[in-house]
Amino acid sequence: MCAQHIENNETFYNVLLEGNKEFVARSLADDPQFFDKLAVQNPPVLWIGCADSRVPANQITNTKPGEIFVHRNIANMVIHTDMNMLSVLDYAVNVLHVKHVIVTGHYGCGGVIAAMGHQEFGLIDNWLRHIKDVYRVHAAELDAIEDEKKRTDRLVELNVIENVYNLCKTTIVQNAWKTGQPLSVHGWVYSIATGLINDLKVSTSNNDKMDDVFKFR
Ligand SMILES: [Zn+2]
Fold first, then answer.
1. 3-state secondary structure 53-89
2. Of all helices (H) and strands (E), which one includes residue 115?
3. 118 is catalytic
4. 54 catalytic residue (yes or no)
5. Distance 207 CA to ligand 1 centre (A)
6. Contact status, residue 120 vs residue 93, Cβ threshold 8 Å
7. Within 10 Å of residue 112's Cβ, how many Cβ atoms?
């Protein structure tokens, strides 16, 4: 299935269904028990990533169905009033008992670029405002970067770091740590240009470095 084929095909919808048949045939050829093994899921990882179509969790980590529990939204945000994200996080931590939660951003993120500008986009401005809040917190560092691309790249990284921090602030993660459940949170940024992941090295498995006001005791 090449890009040209996709562009020329007015019924790309049907290409998806054909692709599904190919997926089933290939999976069963590799392992006749492939689908039987997926009767129960036991993923060790929750992925919180951007909805961007170029950043699919399984492909870029060379993993298979069943190995990563996934939540995606615009600009990989962890917003503490987002019932969707909280429900996914709660299920992942308290039912699936994942060992790792990874916030994965990506350089060139359209959501971050939009948040750095002044154009009004409509409803989404309310979502993007969380990224503007990240900019405000780190304005001194960001304003000192003259190159616009480098400044955008840094905001992508800082947005991931702040959302890792937001994860740590949730009662879901703090209660897991309180009860001794092994759980680490991490921040990564993916490069669409190279395909490589940049580990921001902000991994943590306790609330030692958290501002006191956010700690639940
Ligand atoms: Zn994005």
1. CCCCHHHHHCCCCCCEEEEEECCCCCCCCCHHHHHHH
2. helix 110-116
3. no
4. yes
5. 28
6. no
7. 27
